[in-house]
Amino acid sequence: MRIIGPAFRTSGVTKVYGSGPSAVHALRGVDLELPSGELVVLLGASGSGKSTLLNILGGLDRATDGTVRFFDDDLTAMSDADLTQYRRHHVGFVFQFYNLMPSLTAHENVELVTEIADDPMDPAEALTLVGLDARLQHFPAQLSGGEQQRVAIARAIAKRPTVLFCDEPTGALDSTTGRAVLRVLQDVNEQLGATVLIITHAAATAAMADRVIHFSDGHIREVVVNASKRSAEEIVW
Predict the structure, then answer these.
(1) Which residues have CB under 8 Å from 142's CB, separation 6+?
(2) Interhelix angle for 145-157 vs 175-192, to 10°?
(3) Are 202 and 237 in contact (CB under 8 A)?
(4) Is 47 helix (H, G, I), strand (E, B) or coil?
(5) Angle at 52 between CA 51 and CA 55, to 5 degrees
(6) What value, to the nearest 5°, has the Cα angle with vertex 31 and ends 213 and 187?
(7) How does strand 39-43 pair with strand 211-216?
(8) pTM of the model as a whole
């Protein structure tokens, strides 16, 4: 069941790297509300600040100024230890590069996460959800790029995260394989009820989202709510 209400609310969020004339202003006052249970696509060019925003929402980085709330919790007021617990219990990450342990099988890579989660899926269940039930004992080198990305998704969802952050999850994949990965993310959103945020520069991906956030130069330029969204199989880029 999806929880009604915003999963995230940000107000005046800025992020500045460095100081003085050489300071880089990655975020310039971001006000955002992300409803729980939606699949959201954040579109922007490289260097627009979208990954910085994801890292702040995911508790990997801190805002220079402003507030970030996750339901009723103020992430900006949390200690480092509290942010670690937030990531551990609520957040799953999927990146462009799969970050799998090469010496471990697909099952063992997923099992790494389930060992520290409170109420995890069985690793085999998570891998079955992403269509890899026949590849449990294969090592990363024996898997295609799309299969490795699906192992990374299985690892992220095995702890039953409230939110799943995906940073360019199809960036290293061809279009056919990319559509298969997007289908998995759509299934995670629909079947598990997780809020899914996909960071990408591939504009075609917007068609599968509940909500599309257009990001530019550290600002939200536009938010579009899709009246009807397409299936991942219909995405063409």
Answers:
(1) none
(2) 20
(3) yes
(4) coil
(5) 85
(6) 40
(7) parallel
(8) 0.89
